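Ex. 9. Protein: Transketolase family protein.
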Amino acid sequence: MIKLAPAGLKDDIEMRKVYAGFVAGQIEAGSPIIALEADLMSSMAMDSVAREYPQHVINCGIMEANVIGTAAGLALTGRKPFVHTFTAFASRRCFDQLFMALDYQRNNVKVIASDAGVTACHNGGTHMSFEDMGIVRGLAHSVVLEVTDAVMFADILRQLMDLDGFYWLRTIRKQATSIYAPGSTFTIGKGNVLREGDDITLIANGIMVAEALEAARQLEQEGVSAAVIDMFTLKPIDRMLVKNYAEKTRRIVTCENHSIHNGLGSAVAEVLVENCPVPMRRVGVKERYGQVGTQDFLQQEYGLTAAAIVEAAKSLL
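Predicted structure tokens for Transketolase family protein:
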């Protein structure tokens, strides 16, 4: 069950601190969790956890392929490995290991991929991946998620402890816009309807959920009723929800901090073409690599804004 937070507020806690607190809490509770890092301990607020619980935190260095192999081996001994690195390195850098050591062998490893899309900011183009979710969702057994805020991140992390298999979770590292009120719970594989509407449906994930909600408010001022869905599970996507809202509103706009190829827009289009073909537009990154900049600058530069969503929606009306 979900409840929305007041609009426009930032989370009280950074996402990286949610993760570090989760790992520490699991260790204190006696869980066999092992957190693995690729020389990003301080980036994910894991330094203090490693100092206090050195037997539960492994810094493998800048060797992402080895991190995945190590995690796979730990999983085979009954441990519960959680791997963290940046999205670029958690996808393209170690893809063969994701395939061979995790997905093909059905190993129980959770990969936390941070600095999603433009939120890599000053790390620039080499560290700013727009293709990562498309890479990972092509694996046969992967479950691919992109969390929206700190409340969701904390709840999903708790669920992952009790789920078996290869889960790949995309997130930002710092403060997110608060979407959900404390106490909200989430079902992996099910989208969340945040706003009802009759004229068009905006389907978003990650940082674009806040932009979609703002776009819906702007459209309402112009007499357009827009539904908003947070599709935080990219794979398996909530096919029935997409179909139902396509039938209801007859127009779809997808909104993602990712390439328009192989991400949310593509996944939604696959559902539509097989079930309920309706006009759609994809708001996302188009045929470009990343660059250095603030998040606000980069969202403007790549058209990842409420204004871009409104423009896309109007083109369908």
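Check your answer against this statement. The radius of gyration is 19 Å.
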